[in-house]
Amino acid sequence: MKIRLILLLLVCFSSISFAKITTRFPSSFDDNHLPSDLASKGKELLSYETHYYTQILDHFNYNPQSYQTFQQRYLLNDKYWSGSKKNAPIFVYTGNEGNIEWFTQNTGFMFEIAPHFNALLVFIEHRFYGKSIPYGGNKETAYSNKSTLGYLSSTQALADYATLIIDLKNNLTATDSPVVVFGGSYGGMLAAWFRLKYPHVTIGALASSAPILNFGNITSPYSFNNIITQDFKGESENCYKVIKGIWKQIEDTAKTTGGLEKLRKSFRICKNYISQGSLQNWLSTAFVYTAMTDYPTPSIFLNPLPAYPVKEMCKAIDDPKTGNDMFEKVYGAANIYYNYTGNATCFNLNDHSDPHGLGGWTWQACTEMVMPTDGNNNESIFPVSEWDYNERARFCQSNFGIKPRPDWVTTEFGGNNIERVLKKFGSNIIFFNGLKDPWSGGGVLKDISKSIVAIIAKEGAHHVDLRWSSKEDPEWLRQVRGREVNIISNWLSQYYQSLIDHIY
Ligand SMILES: *[C@@H]1O[C@H](CO)[C@@H](O)[C@H](O)[C@H]1NC(C)=O
Ligand SMILES: *[C@@H]1O[C@H](CO)[C@@H](O)[C@H](O)[C@H]1NC(C)=O
Ligand SMILES: *[C@@H]1O[C@H](CO)[C@@H](O)[C@H](O)[C@H]1NC(C)=O
Ligand SMILES: *[C@@H]1O[C@H](CO)[C@@H](O)[C@H](O)[C@H]1NC(C)=O
Ligand SMILES: *[C@@H]1O[C@H](CO)[C@@H](O)[C@H](O)[C@H]1NC(C)=O
Ligand SMILES: *[C@@H]1O[C@H](CO)[C@@H](O)[C@H](O)[C@H]1NC(C)=O
Q1: Residue 280 forms part of a structural domain
Q2: Atom 10 of ligand 3 has which residue's CA nearest to it?
Q3: CA 157 to ligand 5 center in whole angstroms
Q4: Where is the signal peptide, in residue numbers (predicted)?
Q5: Ligand approaching nearest to the C-alpha of 240
Q6: What number is the average pLDDT over the span 226-240?
Q7: pTM score above 0.90
Q8: Domain assignment present for 266
């Protein structure tokens, strides 16, 4: 069985048996093209200055080489901040595994609530991503081998955030301004962990779609694909059955003489490259990411998509015009993910472009981010397969010459028996999850205490709450955001009260 990289916001590895290590971003995505919902209202709100901070390479030991530094990028918006004299709050986005500008553009929520809170906005880029590259900003050097990549880890990233926030507050003489951290996906995991590890630096965390329980044996390895399966099944049984059946049909066709040419024609694949595995990979990528970004309004997060894209895919599959031609039906579904703009002339299966610079996740997934997500049971919309740690370990050995440490995240941050552990320890964390998001299976879905709360949206997808609002937003989404704003207001009130109590 071969490994494949699904990329995510979190890249994960998938052993959907097909192809070799492939996919990054299967993308015809235009980085300069703002989402349509953003285009309408965000353009004037989305503004920031870019800053660089001289960050230390290794926070955790005192070897001479640890003292090397690099330039860490952060984005700042002080348009709404009412200043340090008023101890006005600071909202910090804990950057994830990609270019921080991309996450910033997709986190309209912070821009939209900043005026209400008179908050300073800070978006910090994660080390080794975007422009925050150690080794003099030289990405090739930084990514050369395990000796250089060894400094890419979540614990270093959290220490970077703490260092930078403390220094920034000093510079602004805002040491008493409360800091609230925000993050989605891996950034959400970082936000939650930051609150647990650095309670003296932040008063609370909004951790959106943060699968902090997708480690070790806490979450079933089938959960991720089961949720995708339910997303499609929920639209129509036929849609589910057609997709479930397509893998074998592709396999059977590929075996026949002229089979690959037939597949090329059916799926409008470019002349440069086709293989059975890469085609299956390309299709499953479309289903995985469409399920993740099944937003209620048109979006451009990974690719441009219509509102409720899973429904649109199933409409294409259920379309009676395509009769019994399963390839034509599934082509129609893929076309929604890969060609919503209508500009694609053919689909390039050999496209390994990575427009958002997410490649470092491969290293992270080979060291600490061992998240078992790619089991498929017999109900799965994908071919049956088992999550296989050894397969991951072999990949990491051959790719980087390293052995993953699958137990490190739960050792460092916890996760086992989280309800019991955090009931008495920790406070002020919101875990948001949309249940359509395959990552929600590894999320915190139940309140842990009065101040560590789970907000669940049955219809929600991957950190939908953090996106720009739109007039077309459904009521449930407005309510989710309203609740989040209320909870954050309470944290702030309590904090200001504690300042007063302390003085008198
Ligand atoms: C790793 O890469 C760095 C930077 O390119 C280089 O100086 C070093 O010799 C390499 N180490 C190994 C073990 O290849
Ligand atoms: C704080 O100010 C110092 C001195 O100007 C500067 O070097 C440093 O980068 C600033 N810190 C941040 C977080 O911008
Ligand atoms: C998960 O469970 C399997 C089988 O029960 C065991 O072999 C493995 O060591 C466990 N992994 C972790 C990270 O606890
Ligand atoms: C095709 O791309 C161009 C340029 O990127 C864009 O202006 C146009 O709207 C696109 N066409 C469609 C149908 O979206
Ligand atoms: C993309 O969509 C346009 C408009 O619907 C269509 O004409 C074109 O054939 C599609 N491209 C591919 C590769 O299917
Ligand atoms: C999956 O397996 C279960 C138990 O073995 C069986 O009851 C069920 O019918 C199977 N489902 C499919 C879709 O094959």
Answers
A1: no
A2: 217
A3: 42
A4: 1-19
A5: 6
A6: 98
A7: yes
A8: no
